[in-house]
Amino acid sequence: MLKANQLLVGILLFLSSLFSCQQQKEDFKSMNVDEFDTYIQDENVQRLDVRTLAEYSEGHIAKTININVLDDSFATMADSLLQKDKPVALYCRSGKRSRKAAKILSKKGYKVFDLYNGFNAWKDAGKNIEQ
User: Each residue's pLDDT tens digit in the chain (131 positions)?
Assistant: First the structure.
C-alpha cells in the first residue's frame, strides 16, 4: 500500500510540474498610447522598434533603435545594444511581434514595457512620427 501511495504522489507531482511549466507568466507591462508616450519621456528609458528595417524606414517613434525580432540574432543584438539596468519600451506594427520580443527580453532580465496595439495605435492617436 505504501508503494502505491508513493507512486500516486510521484505521478501527481509530475503532472503538476508539467502544467505549471505551461503557464508562464508574462513578465512585462503593456501600455496604451498615452501611457507609453508619457513613459518614454524619461531619458533613462531605452526605446526599441522590433519591426523590419523597411517598416522602420517608413516611420518610427523618435529616438528608437531598430532590431528586428524576427532576425535570428535578435537576442544577441539586443544584449549588445541595450543596457539591462535601464527599462526598455518597445513596439512593433500591431503588437504581436513586440509581445514576442518582450517575452524574450524579460526572460533575459530586462524590465520591459510594450506599446499595446503597436505603431498602428501610435499613428491613429496622431502622435509624432520620425521619418
Answer: 555 555 444 454 444 444 444 434 568 999 999 999 999 999 999 999 999 999 999 999 999 999 999 999 999 999 999 999 999 999 999 999 999 999 999 999 999 999 999 999 999 999 999 99
Q: Evaluate whether residue 44 is within a structural domain.
A: yes
63 burial type by CB count under 10 A (0-12 exposed, 13-18 middle, 19+ buried): exposed
Judge contact between 80 and 74, C-beta under 8 A: no
In the chain, how many domains are there? 1
The candidate with the shortest Cα–Cα distance to 51, out of 110, 94, 114, is 94
Whether the CB-CB separation of 91 and 115 falls below 8 Å is answered with yes
The phi and psi torsions of 90 (rounded to 5 degrees) equal -130, 160
| Residue range of the domain that includes 58 | 25-124
Do residues 118 and 36 touch, judged by C-beta distance below 8 A? no
Identify the CATH number of the domain in which residue 99 sits. Answer: 3.40.250.10
Q: What pTM value is reported for the model?
A: 0.80
